[in-house]
Structures are given as C-alpha cells and as structure tokens.
Design goal:
Chain A is of the alpha/beta class and 249 residues long. Chain A has seven helices and eleven strands. Helix content of chain A is 29%, strand content 27%. With 386 residues, chain B is of the alpha+beta class. Chain B has a four-stranded antiparallel beta sheet, with no helix packed on it. The chains are: A alpha/beta (249), B alpha+beta (386).
C-alpha cells in the first residue's frame, strides 16, 4: 500500500502573527516557517502505518514556493521515503491544492491520502474534504484513531458531541486531529539521510491544473485589542456589573 | 561546514524543539529525583545525540567543531544534567579514540559510542592530581599482552553507568611528568575495576560522578590508545581542546536561557506601579548580560572555526572556556538578583540554575588553569619569535 501525505509550509506556531501594513495579508518575510502541526501528525501517522508493515511507501507532497522543499525535507527526516513539490508562487486556495493533489494521486496511485484537518495559517479546513469529493473516495475527517484493515479502515472522528467511529472503504482520504498521535522528533541521523532522498519538482501546468484563485481577500485585520479589565470590590458589585453592564446574566 | 546549511538548520531546529518541548519541562523533576528518566535517555539515543562528534563512517553525525558548538548552545539551554547523559560520549569520553585511536579501536568502540549502547567516561583526575594532571599516580604495567592498572580516579562524570572509560595512567615510572603517561580504553567488565559511591553535589542533580578504582585491573595491550606508550597526556590535552569549546557553547546556551528567564520575570514583576524592567538599574543588568552572551557566542564560534580550519586552538579554547563559564556565572547571578527574594526560593528554578552554573568554572580545567594555559602560550610564542 502507498500513502501520500500533504505538508504545508506555514508561519511557525510560536511566532506572533503580524498583519502587513497594507492589510493584504500577514507578514512572512524574515519569519520562521515550519510544517503545519496537523500535517506533522499526518506524516507521523503515515510512518507508523509503514512501521507496522501495512504500508510500503510514504510520499510527502507540498504545493507552493521553492522553500516548501524545506518542509518536505522535514517530512523526509521524520521517515517519508520521497517528496514531490508542486512549485508555484501564486496564492493557493484549498480548491486549487485539492486539484493538484488529485492530479498527483492519479499519477502515483496511492490507496490512502492523509492531510492535516486544517492549516494553522488560514484555518480553512477544506482541502481534505474537497480532495475526497474530487476523487470520489471515502473520507474520514478529524481522525483521532485510524485502524487500517485489508481494504477498509475504522476511523474514530472527533465531532462536536464526542467521538464518532466510521468504517470506510479504501481508497480513502483521512484528515488528522490533534489527538491522533504525538509526532516524533526527527532524529539527527535521519536528518542527514533525508538530504539524499529524492524530491521531484512539478508545476501546475505539467499537472494540467488551473490554480486561479476563486476567492478574493478584501482586507486582513488584526483582532481587536483586548480592553483592560477592572478590579471589583465585592461580589455584589461583580453581580451588578455582570447584570447591568455586561448584560450576561 | 560538512553539511549544507539547510540540513544543518533542520538539525538545529530538531534539537531546539526537543530541548524546549521535552527536556526543559522535566528539569524540576530531574533535579528532585537526581535522575534523568530512562525513557529520556532512550530518546536521546534515538535522536542520535550520543554520536554528534563521532565521524559518519563510524555511525555518528560527524559534526564539525563549529556545528558542534552551535548544537551545544542549544543543548546548553536545558539543565546541564541532560547534556551530561551523552556529554561524555560527545566530548572527552569519545574524542581520545576519535583523535588518536587505532583503526581497530575506532571500529570496535565508536559505532557503539555513537548509538549510545556504550556510555563513556574520561578518567584523568585523581585525588592528588586535579589541576596538576601531569602528576597523576595511577600506574599501568605491561605483563605479557596485558596492562595491569593500579590507582584511583576521582569525580569521574558518568562513571556510575559508564561501559567504557578512557583512562590515563603512568606506563613509565621513571618519567615523572607527562611523558610517562599513556591512555587506555578500559571496559566496565574488566577484572579489578570497581566504582565508588556517587558523590553528593551542590547542583547538576541527575548527573553523577564517582571514584573509579583500579586494583590489578587487567586491560588488553591492544587497548592502549594509538598503540604507543607515553602519548596519553598529549591525547588528553587534544581531547580537552575540543571539549572546552563544546563546554563554552553549553555556557553560552545556559546563560542565554538564564537571561531569557530573567527578562520574562522583569517584564512581569511590578514594583512602584510598573514592571521592574522599566528601571534602569535592572536594564543595566539585562543589557550587560546580553552583550556578554553575544561576546561569548562570537568567541566560541570563532575558535571553533579556527579549529576546523586546522589551526591549533589551545589558547582560543582556553579563552572561550574561561570567558563563557565566568560570564555564565555573572549572568545567572544577575538573574537571581533580578528575581529578588523569589530568586532564592527553589520553586522559581533560578536558584537551581545558580547552583548548576557554578560547576562550569571548575570542571574540564578551572578558570585558573585556563589562565595559565593562555598566559604560558603567549609567553612561549613571544620567546619563540625572539
């Protein structure tokens, strides 16, 4: 069995996000970039499936600028076998990424695709679902457990009301939630080995995919600054304020 | 650099992440239990940390000195007890074999040192020979194809669980100074080898030192490092040059962490209705610390680069070890000062850093020994020119 994992290069989760002065997006120059944490979980899951002997090959795919190769290298250092970069320098929206991934799936013929449930930059939470729809495959989203059988998989999903378990036919797309696993630290010997693993570089044109944005971003704003709180003298005053000022009780 | 910068940046990122997410949260527990948990030791081996300086052909990562000090600056941010787990394998415990070992010795020991299967120790110091290492009294007498070792080594890091020790002993009692000293690889299972009780220490809890006792301890003659008698002291000194740079990196990392902790506290702690970071006397302490750390970082990296280019860096390594360890002491002291009363209370962790940092000025050559090395080299150079 072959698995494709999608990995996105995003602003590191430790970085304080700043909006560009012209409000067209967030500042990414000279900002530390890393792999989307949900995608790390996806890579980890794929590697664990490989270590359990159920999967022969893990391919890490990223779409975006040339520097996305660093993100692919991280996946290779964790244990993926090879990488594919679809290189382009225009803004990619979930539908475009789903179409690119679909084209790669058709070239590579994997049985499983694992992606993060969302990326921490735009929080779209769409690519996995769109990909499954485009391919006509089953989808197990927000997975907190994946039990892989011969030609089916049992996926435990984190839904609003608790946990839902579904049985899916393979081929399938899984999207990962936080509790699926705890990603490993890339070991130093594996980081060294990763530099020798191959990364193929393709373009959207080669894959015949139209990546024109369908959505227009009008303006990006920082969230409103939190107002300073006030100290109250007594419980009575607190209740009064909650009732009459905040009007929450 | 032997590896491309992307690969090395990945490596540094992985180490930084491991230090921040796994090691730093466990510091208090390790100090209280005086023990690094087994699963952490196992993870460190998996991460490849035991093999940082073992050449790639022997299963290690083969970092250059410059790369090594960059990594040690990251590792140095966590309690020194963590680094101590693999510190001897990376530094003084393995480098004698890496630098001067025979091909056979390298093949037999280095892969297991790199994987962490063997933990190593460096046994030079004796009860009567600390700073005056060339005066060591342990003896090694050749009998057939074995050396018979007798003597006692003191404060040997990692000895309580070391599998392999690099031991300096006198093979020629007629030569009193360093010329009569040879170095040996001694396996833990050797007959006649025993260990003292782990010492109680001021800080760095979780890292252990003890005495190592040789009573007619029999070591195969082929374990004489480099296969030549009388080279042991030179081997030890070459090992220490690199070790001093590694340690300088650790001091820079540890100081950097102490400053980070102090800065965080200074920005939060309010007195006279404003954060104490707004007071110029506190700012003075923060700024001096920042500049000193920067100086230490530059010095260490410069010395490491020189070593990588093939230069003899005994003076530079001693400068870096002396400066960074003293600097680290000052920075940690200021951190305690900025914390004020809380700095003296165990729960805040800064007093632990203060105790931990104290050792940096002592081990692998005290500040005073570094001063002697630096001054002697300067004087020797001048006399050579004349």
């Amino acid at each position: 069995m072959k698995v494709i994992v999608a990995v996105k290069r995003v602003v590191d989760y430790n970085v304080k996000i700043r909006v560009k002065p012209d409000h067209t997006g967030v500042e990414t120059t000279n900002v530390k970039m890393s792999m989307n944490p949900f995608d790390e979980i996806a890579v980890e899951e794929a590697i664990r499936l490989q270590e359990s002997g159920k999967v022969e090959e893990v391919i890490a795919v990223s779409c975006g600028i040339s520097q996305c190769q660093e993100t692919i290298r991280t996946a290779l250092a964790m244990g993926a076998d090879r990488g594919i970069l679809v290189e382009c320098d225009v803004e990619l929206q979930p539908l475009a990424v789903a179409k690119l991934l679909k084209a790669i799936v058709q070239n590579e013929n994997p049985e499983i695709v694992i992606v993060g449930k969302q990326a921490i930059d735009d929080d779209s939470n769409q690519t996995g679902q769109m990909l499954a729809a485009l391919l006509g495959w089953s989808q197990g989203t927000f997975a907190s457990q994946i039990v892989l059988g011969e030609d089916s998989a049992k996926v435990t999903r984190e839904v609003d009301g608790g946990l839902e378990t579904v049985n899916l036919n393979i081929p399938a797309v899984f999207t990962t939630d936080l509790r699926l696993n705890e990603p490993r630290y890339a070991s130093l010997p594996n980081i060294m080995k990763a530099k020798k693993k191959p990364i193929d570089i393709l373009t959207p044109e080669q894959l015949g995919v139209d990546i024109t944005p369908r959505l227009t971003t009008l303006r990006v704003n920082e969230p409103p600054v939190r107002q300073a709180g006030v100290m109250v003298e007594s419980v009575t005053e607190l209740v009064d304020k909650l009732k009459n000022e905040a009007k929450v009780i | 650099m032997t590896m491309d910068s992307d690969t090395f940046q990945n490596l540094l990122t992985s180490v930084r992440k491991y230090v921040n997410e796994r090691l730093i949260p466990l510091e208090k527990e390790v100090a209280e239990n005086d023990e690094v948990p087994e699963d952490i030791k196992h993870e460190m081996a998996e991460m490849g940390l035991f093999g940082l300086t073992v050449p790639e052909e022997y299963g290690g990562i083969g970092l250059t000195t410059e790369e090594e000090v960059c990594v040690s600056m990251e590792l140095g941010r966590a309690s020194p007890a963590f680094r101590s787990v693999f510190g001897t394998n990376v530094g003084i415990g393995s480098q004698a074999i890496v630098i001067d070992g025979t091909k056979e010795q390298k093949l037999r020991y280095l892969p297991k040192i790199a994987s962490g299967e063997y933990v190593t120790s460096f046994a030079l110091t004796e009860p009567e020979a600390g700073s005056d290492a060339a005066n060591l009294q342990s003896t090694a007498r050749l009998e057939g194809n074995e050396y018979v070792l007798n003597g006692r080594k003191r404060y040997i890091t990692n000895a309580p669980w070391a599998d392999v020790l690099t031991v300096m002993a006198r093979t020629n009692p007629d030569i009193s100074g360093h010329g009569g000293i040879s170095s040996f690889i001694v396996e833990r299972t050797s007959a006649g080898l025993s260990f003292g009780k782990p010492e109680k220490k001021m800080g760095q809890h979780g890292a252990h030192v003890c005495d190592v006792i040789f009573e007619n301890c029999r070591v195969p003659a082929k374990n004489l490092i480099g296969g030549i008698e009388g080279q042991g002291f030179k081997t030890a000194m070459k090992t220490l040059d690199r070790g001093r740079l590694h340690l300088a990196g650790v001091c820079v990392g540890f100081a950097d962490r102490a400053l980070e902790v102090a800065l965080g506290y200074a920005c939060e702690r309010k007195q006279f209705k404003k954060p104490i970071s707004e007071f110029q006397l506190v700012q003075g302490m923060l700024a001096e610390s920042k500049a000193e750390i920067y100086a230490g970082r530059c010095m260490t990296i410069d010395a490491a680069k020189k070593r990588d280019s093939g230069q003899v860096v005994a003076t530079e390594a001693a400068c870096a070890k002396m400066f960074t360890s003293e600097m680290c002491g000052r920075v940690v002291d200021r951190a305690v000062q900025i914390f004020g009363g809380s700095g003296y209370i165990a729960d805040y962790g800064v007093e632990r850093m203060y105790r931990d940092a104290r050792l940096f000025r002592i081990y692998e050559g005290t500040t005073q020994i570094q001063q002697i090395v630096i001054a002697r080299n300067m004087i020797r150079e001048l006399l050579d020119i004349q």
